[in-house]
Give the backbone structure.
Amino acid sequence: MGDFGAASFYPTDDQLIAERIERLEIRAFGCLLEELAERCHVVSSEQQKIIGCLDDLTLSCLNENILLRPDFDEITRFLHGLMREYEVITAPQAFA
């Protein structure tokens, strides 16, 4: 698996630069999602639906127009919604 992130410090007081660098990181996150999905062994129809939703997120993250890519807050809300919809148990709860 690759690491396509920019992994750098940048000035957060310059909103334009910060936003553009975050959008670059979003693309890297999309590449990571794509590679993870390729390695998933999907068994059930529910799992297939989840992977389909993650594929949609991946496409959004890889959008050529960086301004149309979601930001990390949007991605977090999307993933939390997906977890609620499919009642995904997070690791800490699974071991409680």
Remarks:
- Residues 15-88 form one domain.
